[in-house]
Design goal:
The structure holds 2 protein chains of 2 kinds.
Chain A: E1 8-15, H1 26-41, E2 50-53, H2 73-80, E3 87-90, H3 95-109, E4 114-121, E5 135-137, H4 151-165, H5 174-184, H6 199-203, E6 207-210, E7 212-213, E8 223-231, H7 232-235, E9 243-250, H8 263-281, E10 290-293, H9 299-307, H10 316-319, H11 338-342, H12 348-359, E11 372-376, E12 385-390
Parallel strand pairs in A: 2-3, 2-4, 10-11
Antiparallel strand pairs in A: 1-8, 1-9, 4-8, 6-7, 9-12, 11-12
Chain B: E1 11-13, H1 19-26, E2 31-35, E3 41-42, E4 57-61, E5 65-74, E6 88-95, E7 102-108, E8 120-127, E9 133-139
Parallel strand pairs in B: 7-9
Antiparallel strand pairs in B: 2-3, 2-4, 5-6, 5-8, 6-7, 8-9
The chains are: A alpha/beta, B mainly beta.
Chain lengths: 394, 142
């Protein structure tokens, strides 16, 4: 087991408004989320001495403008002018989970005391995947001439392989979409709060990239979320009950860069991250009381459930049936609505919900008697990170 | 059948690692990067062998027969120049001669509903312009 288990905790949580269009600069969303997280901890802004983010815009063909379409560490530093800042970083791999893990490491190393991590996501005007136009350079030279473009299609091809290899049917995914939307009805911050989804809505919705229909894809939005991380000792003196970090992992497997459609990339990536997380924590999938598994596209949940070890390969769409993933099921899943319910804010929201469930702060959607709270914070393929939060240090 | 007649495909921009692939395709030949140390084929091209880390890589001819590893049927196109062809099949092919080296293509000369995992396909060459020809696939004949 990891000697540093339960030595760092998530304390405060903050959200911005989540909107469909970019009516105000993204920097304002990020500030709202960061201020909210600091206030939730009962801290003052001058207490914050660590900053971390992953400032990527996953849309294609749009300019990255700091403060408008991304919010970098430099942007946040310039806005906050923190008098006691001692540490900061922005990460380039494994998405926002990597930034969270770096902040954990900084706290364990004693180079900061209260770190804020945020994820801010922009929804550009026009087509989200604004594909290359006349020429296709780099990795796209082998895909764009064939009409491939955007991560959705890359996910879709792996999903057809999974479906046909395991003789499964995409209609079973309706259970995931409908259950998560039900959960989103208990999350006032979610984009789809107040908008339920029926099984019929799912089954009759238009195809985007078969096997993905509209409701298999998270909706692009503008918004931000943030957390305060601190050492367990300090967290106990703050306002909210801490969510103790038992362990984390990151994907260690990478096949040829830019290889498209490989199902094994997801399985090996997720498996490598989860193995670290189980071994460091001493827990196994059967110990998990509640799980958040990244769902930017619905099929990511399949790869997560299987590669993390919650069910056998080929069985995830059967595993999620019969109420198992509801709030009172055996494995309540994406209890905040997931990205399919909140809108596309990437995996920090999954980490937030994992922490809220572990600390008993999830309100109306709180799962009963949670100790072990699992998070898979992004698609297991190239960006996968996994976390376990617990209610009681051990 | 998907109507490709109005589609203007993006033109590949080769780099030093990928140019031999496109030069071969222009001559209606399928060539893939092969490690001269361990014999591993890989695609897309990469500066080092992803199997053994050697840097002695050469493009060698491969037989254009394989199976559909995966596919998607496109109904919504990010690149609007493809919108006249929807729905169309974009496929991923694993060649018999190069297991694990996955190639993208379209399924030509067939209904998009013919795209299925495991179906046999063979390479055909589709001229883009005087400089570039795309390796493409059709259902295997015979």
């Amino acid at each position: 087991m990891w000697e540093n288990r339960c030595k760092v905790a998530v304390s405060g949580i903050g959200y911005s408004k989540v909107t469909r269009t970019a009516d105000i600069p993204l920097a304002a969303h990020a500030l709202e989320a960061v201020r909210g997280a600091v206030a939730d901890s009962g801290l003052k802004m001058e207490d914050i001495d660590g900053l971390a983010t992953y400032p990527e815009l996953p849309a294609t063909g749009h300019a990255e403008i700091d403060g408008i379409s991304v919010v970098s560490v430099n942007c946040m530093m310039a806005m906050l002018k923190l008098p006691n800042l001692t540490w900061h970083i922005q990460t380039g791999t494994v998405n926002i989970g990597g930034a969270v893990q770096q902040a954990v490491n900084a706290l364990l190393a004693g180079v900061c005391k209260y770190a804020v991590v945020w994820r801010a996501m922009h929804n550009p005007k026009g087509t989200y995947q604004n594909l290359p136009g006349t020429y296709a350079a780099g990795a796209a030279q082998f895909t764009a001439p064939y009409g491939f473009g955007g991560p959705g299609q890359g996910m879709a091809v792996a999903y057809t392989r999974w479906l046909e290899k395991h003789n499964q049917s995409r209609e079973k995914m309706a259970t995931l979409a409908v259950t998560q939307r039900q959960h989103a009805q208990k999350n006032p911050h979610a984009y789809f709060y107040g908008t339920p989804l029926t099984r019929e809505n799912y089954l009759s919705s238009r195809m985007v990239a078969y096997p993905f229909c509209l409701y298999d894809c998270d909706i692009p939005v503008q918004g931000a979320v943030a957390i305060v991380l601190t050492t367990a000792d300090r967290a106990r003196d703050l306002k909210p009950r801490p969510a103790y970090l038992a362990s984390y992992g990151q994907r260690l497997h990478l096949e040829v860069a830019d290889r498209i459609g490989s199902l094994s990339s997801y399985m090996l990536g997720g498996g490598s991250s989860a193995k670290l997380t189980w071994e460091r924590s001493g827990f196994s999938p059967k110990d998990v009381d509640v799980a958040q598994i990244y769902d930017g596209f619905s099929a990511s949940v399949i790869y997560g459930l299987e590669s993390y070890g919650f069910c056998e390969e080929g069985q995830a769409l059967d595993f999620i049936q019969d109420g198992r993933i509801g709030l009172d099921g055996d494995l309540p899943l994406n209890t905040f609505g997931g990205s399919l319910g909140t809108g596309r804010i990437h995996g920090l929201w999954h980490i937030i919900e994992g922490a809220l469930q572990a600390s008993g702060r999830a309100g109306e959607r709180q799962v009963k008697a949670v100790n072990v709270s699992f998070v898979g914070a992004s698609a297991p393929i190239v960006t996968g990170t996994t976390f376990i939060f617990v209610n009681e240090p051990y | 059948m998907s109507d490709w007649s109005q589609v203007t495909r993006p033109i590949p921009v080769p780099n030093e690692w990928t140019r031999p692939f496109w030069d071969a395709a222009k001559a209606h030949e399928l060539k893939m990067q092969r490690c001269q140390s361990c014999g591993h084929f890989q695609h897309p091209p990469y500066p080092t062998c992803v199997n053994c880390m050697a840097i002695d890589l050469k493009f060698e001819p491969v037989e254009g027969k394989g199976t559909i590893y995966a596919y998607t049927i496109m109904y919504h196109t990010g690149d609007r120049r493809f919108s006249s062809a929807v729905p169309y099949a974009s496929i991923i092919v694993e060649l018999d001669a190069a297991p694990g080296a996955l190639m993208a293509g379209n399924l030509l000369d067939a209904e998009y509903t013919e795209a299925k995992v495991g179906r046999r396909v063979e390479v055909v060459f589709q001229k883009l312009n005087d400089d570039f020809t795309l390796p493409q696939f059709r259902l295997a004949r015979g």
